[in-house]
Amino acid sequence: MRQVSRGIFQHALAEASISKGLARHVHCERGVLRVCEDLYDLQSYSRVLVVSLGKAGHTMVEALSAQVGASLEGIVASPVQPASQVHGFRYFRGGHPTPNAESIQAASAILRMLDAQPASALVIFLLSGGGSSIVEKPIDDEISLDDLIATYRALVHSGAPIAEINAVRKHLSAVKGGRLAQAAYPAQQVSLLVSDVPDSTPDALASGPTMPDSTSIDDCYRIAEKYELLNQFPQSTRELFERHALDETPKSDDPAFVRARWWPILSNQTAIEEASIAAERSGFLVHVDNSCDDWDYEKAADYLLQRVRELKRQFSPVCLISGGEVTVKVTNGGIGGRNQQFALACADKIAGENITVLSAGTDGVDGNSPAAGAVVDGTTIERAQARGLEVRAALQKFDAYPLFQAIGDAIEIGPTGNNLRDLRILLAD
Asked: pTM (2 decimals)?
């Protein structure tokens, strides 16, 4: 069943690809671009610019260029160096999960390109997960790159859900929380979204650079207090909070959004649906339960294992699919990520049972490891112990990847050029 679960995951990745998502929602014929329900006569604009940022930065531009042709120009910022570049685009390799020097260079280049564009121009934004760190420029010049990295690290390791992390990021950034839309004003704007955030909070995607911000500075102060972040922030960031000096982000009444549209073309739901199809074809009765989204990984593991055991008593074989992300508050610096931490916690709870659990990120990258995630079953503990590996120690040290790599249960597929959050696939017979 470990192989079956891998096959279900791979099918979901293939069918929820960027190229297939764009083909379903975007079409260009005779110079007229259709994006979902909207039409754009590209020849009627004085200039058409494209800004593509996030883990799918290159693949989205590639797919759009295949539809439109070689007339496009703009900037791409992604965390990997693609094998080839699309003609007419400048490329930046931004950092993830923390910004690097090119993240700031990319943000500065995008702001310069958007500056003073007329109302007769069209700006197409292609946004995907990871954009928060891949393109970044601090709102305050006192925040250095080192301080920015330290701030991000404190946020990422806090155990806060992504929406709360991004609320803080938005208010510390010159490009997030609708500020790229302000920079592009008065040009017409359309954003295509490949989402790695909950459907209910689309402006959390890449920290919402082109959308009205639904969060406020008061939220930021509350979040900082809730997760005791001030003691972890560097001085330059901490002072902004202590002085209550954060600037508010643009809201829905800002003029920048009057001629702006936003269209989701892929989301976690797409991956869930495709995984469900693959599981049904493999003979499983499928149930979907996303209620543990943003839960602590241990609580999520207990909940989902209880659910699959209940289903197993009624149906056989059964597949429980869960989308979204779990949270991990990291206190020690091993090699791994939230998916491997979740999977290892499950392995400890299902020893000897005929249950298989796969947890992996659709972006192909889990935390600071080279794996997307891992797959475990009732034999994982026994196989690890046979190699002299201690599961409990790996859990405590947040060091799951070396263990999974040693027993062959790490899922190593490399960066996918996509990012639709995580999938957890639980199989029971």
From this structure: 0.90
